[in-house]
Amino acid sequence: MESQLPVKMSDGAILKADVAYPTDPVTGRRAPGNFPVLLTQTPYLSTKPTAGDYFVQHGYIFVTAYVRGTTTSGGNFGFFSKRDAQDGVELVKWASTQLQGSNGQIGLTGGSYAGINQAATVAEAGRSSPIKALAPYCMGAEFYRETYFAGGIPTQTLNFQRVIGDSMGGNTAPTGAALVNEINAGGPRAYEGQFWQDRTPGNLAEKIVDAGVPALLWSTNGDIYAQSSLELYSYLQNASRKLPTFGPMRQDQNATGRYQIVMGQGGHCENIDQRITMEWFDTWLKGKKTGIEDTSTPLHAHEMISNRWLNTAAYPVVPAYTRYYLGPNKTLSPVVPAESGRDSAAWAQPDATSTLQYESPALENGGTLAGPISASVYASSSTRNLELIATLQLVGVDGSTTPISSGTVLGSLAANDPQRSWFDVSGVPVRPYGKFISDEPVPEGSVKKYDFALSPRFVHIPEGSKLRLTVTTQTPTPRCSPNLGVDPCFPTSPQAGSLQGSVVSLHFGPPTRTSLNLPLLKGDCWRSSDNPNPNVPYWKGNLLSGVPGPCQK
User: Fold this and answer.
1) What's the DSSP call for residue 10?
2) For 121-168, what is each residue's pLDDT tens digit?
3) Would you say 434 and 452 are in contact if contact means Cβ atoms under 8 Å apart?
4) Residue pair 158/183 in contact by the 8 Å Cβ criterion
5) Greatest CA separation found in the chain?
6) How far is the C-alpha of 339 from the C-alpha of 357, rounded, in Å?
7) Spatial separation of the C-alpha atoms in residues 77 and 165, rounded to whole Å
């Protein structure tokens, strides 16, 4: 391994890179010949003696380059700036033409920060680049909407920027305390303006496809990019077929194996299977016939509860959503209640005065949740703002509960973009897409409809289970202590001021049909393929049959 090699950028900044080479298994010395190169660009100093060991052992040179202004690299930290994207292009050129032992074929890999910057590098490089494939994990299409804010309220992840940003340039960096303080004061970067749009990977989907570079995405149901990783998959699929990039995929859309996603279980950057990633790179960098690109079902999801791998193509998966309506006596039912009413909750830490809980009848035949989840809530507030957090749980026949998903709406930032929002065949909101441009005060005491997203999930519902919807108004303080998360933890000063003393009423009944909108399928929708071996690759395991049609609940 060669450590801390200097790589000079066009503006004179010196970035540092560690390079690991394949070795002769007998002598342990560097293997002769030229090899394809896998490049990761990270702001974190590697603690391992050899990053990318697995790939090196299988015939790849592995380059760990350190992002400018971080660790041992020179220059100023840019937090996904235009200059950072140019650095990626220049690192690719260096790795393909100047790095000793390189055969000129480049793959980009890495997770989180090192996953996001792959999109920017490819978009900046264009079609003539030596980049042959991407394998970004724990990243997605959004920055503002999912990761740094929840319904427009800052999350644990944004608070983490105070730590990471200060260590990478302090007040001279576009992040750190300067960013957090501006947002807390309700400044421009508290909204989804140019700063966040310039750093939104989903906006680069068309450029990635135009560059001709295939991508294998990885995420998990507990990732801070669980929602937008799936959305990025749909954007890439749409762009590859010259369909509206940011719309939902069509149910009959011919999906390409050049853009795939694996949705596993776990947290941020957990449970990444390097074997599959290597097959991906073997396909595109070494020309091996692995079959990975031939799949017609490029979405591979690990179903919660059942622990089965399920494969499908279109996202969203379900064409017609099932609505469960809030009703009297805290009921949750697929039937609109005949009686109108309302329940109220104060803006406070979760307790008896600030928590509402609704429960469905038992689903005797079970079911499957597959894809985006949303809520349509009719609500009023005693002040000029409101905050609602909707949490979906599964209640087993033994009374045990399993957290499924959650989502947040802030009344003053609840306006959605109808051009970017997704709807089912009947117009039911599937994936509301917030604007987050400016605050619009809530009319005090007036009932308004609020459509907002809950994070998507693939979940097996055992027979006899119930659905439970819990509505709260604040995130419990202990939950806000981790460095990463997507909970609405730290309202800005203006937000907190407008929420103070608020009491929110949820309205239900025929004229105000508050509902949980579910991608519900029958429990037996998923069938095994002809090869039931659980050790086969994801793209040859299980198939989804009968959507739409007999699978629809």
Assistant:
1) T
2) 999 999 999 999 999 999 999 999 999 999 999 999 887 776 666 655
3) yes
4) yes
5) 80
6) 18
7) 9
> Which one-letter amino acid corresponds to residue 531?
N
Question: Whose CA is closest to 520, among 427, 424, 421?
Answer: 424
Could you give the CA distance from residue 204 to residue 187 in angstroms, rounded to a whole number? Answer: 26
Q: Give the pair of three-digit tokens for residue 467.
A: 């659905």
Which residues, at least 6 apart from 498, have a Cβ–Cβ distance to it below 8 Å? Answer: 383, 384, 385, 412, 441
Provide the pLDDT confidence category of residue 307 given band limits of 50, 70 and 90: confident
The token duo for 281 is: 């790179």
What is the number of helices (H) and of strands (E) in the chain?
10, 28
**CA 99 from centre of chain:** 34
| Of residues 221, 219, 363, the one with CA closest to residue 303 | 221
Residue keyed to tokens 């089965």: 308
Cis bond before residue 136 (omega within 30° of 0): no
Count the residues in the chain: 553
Among 149, 524, 135, 511, which residue's Cα sits nearest to residue 340? Answer: 511
Strands 215-220 and 259-264: parallel
pLDDT in tens, 497-545: 999 999 999 999 999 999 999 999 988 776 654 444 545 555 454 444 4
Q: At 217, list the tokens.
A: 């995405």
Q: Taking CA 240 as the corner, what is the angle to CA 239 and CA 244, rounded to the nearest 5 degrees?
A: 30
Nearest in space to 58 (alpha carbons), one of 32, 41, 35, 27: 35
Residue of 311, 307, 310, 308 whose CA lies nearest to 294: 311
Tens digit of pLDDT for each residue in 427-455? 999 999 999 999 999 999 999 999 999 99
pTM value is: 0.95
